[in-house]
Amino acid sequence: MNPLDPFGLGRQTVRLGVAVVRAVLDGVTPAGPAALAGPRSGPASGPASGPASGPAGPTAHSLGAKMNDLLGKAIELSSTSSRDEVFHHVLDQLVPDEARILSALSDGSAAALVHVHGWTRAGLMGEALIENASLVGRTANVALPALTPVYVGHLLSLGVVETGPEDPELKDDYQILLAETEVLAAIKKAGRGPLPGRTERRTLRISAFGKALWDASTGGPS
User: Cα(133)–Cα(81) distance, rounded to whole angstroms?
Assistant: First the structure.
C-alpha cells in the first residue's frame, strides 16, 4: 500500500489534494483542479479577468460605487430631503437615554454642567478628571444616570446640544451637582497640595440643530 495514498485514490488525486492543502496553508485560494494539476502545453493564457487584489480591486471599486451613489443622490434630493437624510442619520446613532435628555432640553431650558480639572505644576488648569457631569440625566429620568457624562459627550459630538457659560440662576443645581459622590471624589483626586481640583461651571442647552431635529421628529414648529 502506498503510504501517501492509503485509500487508493490515484496519483493525480493525491497530487491535487496536496496542492489544495499547500495552497490553504500559504493563504492562497486554489484556482481549481486544472490550475493545480500543473502547467499544460499550449499557448500561454492572457491575464485573469477577475478583480485585482491591489488598490484597484474590489474594495476600491465598492468605495467608488458608494461615492458615486451618494453624489447621484445629492443631485436628486431637495433641501428638505437632504435635511431629513441628516436627521435620520443622527437619530440612528442615539440610544433611548440620549433621546430622553434631548426631550428634557427641548423646551429650551438649561441644565447645570460641571467639569473637574487637575492643576499643572505651573498652577494652570490641567487634565479633566470628569467632563460633562450634569443633573440633566436625573431630570430626564434616564435608565442609567451614571452614564450621563457619556450621553452628554455623545450628544455634544453630534451637535444636537451645546454648552454655554455658567448661569447664576442655577446656583442650587451647581451645589447639588458638586455634592455628588463621583464629583467630590474627582475634586479630591484632582487636588494639588492644599488646593482642591478646579471646577468649571457651564450650562447645557439644546442647539439650533437639535431643536430643528426635535421639531421635525415630533411635528413641532417648522
Answer: 36
Kindly list the domain boundaries of the chain, sorted by start residue.
10-36, 93-218
DSSP, collapsed to helix, strand or coil, labels residue 118 as strand
pLDDT at 5: 47
Whole-number Å distance between alpha carbons of 138 and 135 = 5
Task: Compute CA distances 220 → 89, 104, 207, 214, 215, whole Å.
Answer: 19, 15, 15, 7, 4
* Residue 199 CB contacts under 8 Å (≥ 6 apart), including other chains: 114, 115, 116, 117, 178, 187
* Residue whose C-alpha cell reads 458638586 in the numeric block: 178
| Class of residue 217 by CB neighbours under 10 A (exposed 0-12, middle 13-18, buried 19+) | middle
Smallest Cα–Cα separation from 37: which of 21, 17, 10? 17
CATH architecture of 93-218: 2-Layer Sandwich (3.30)
With cut-offs at 50, 70 and 90, classify the pLDDT of residue 37. very low
Task: For residue 217, give the DSSP letter.
Answer: H
Nearest to 134 by CA among 100, 158, 160, 110: 110
Global pTM value: 0.66
Residue 177 CB partners (closer than 8 Å, separation 6+): 112, 114, 133, 134, 135, 183
Close Cβ partners of 206 (under 8 Å, ≥ 6 residues apart): 102, 105, 106, 108, 160, 161, 162, 214
Asked if 196 and 187 count as a contact pair (C-beta separation under 8 A), the reply is yes
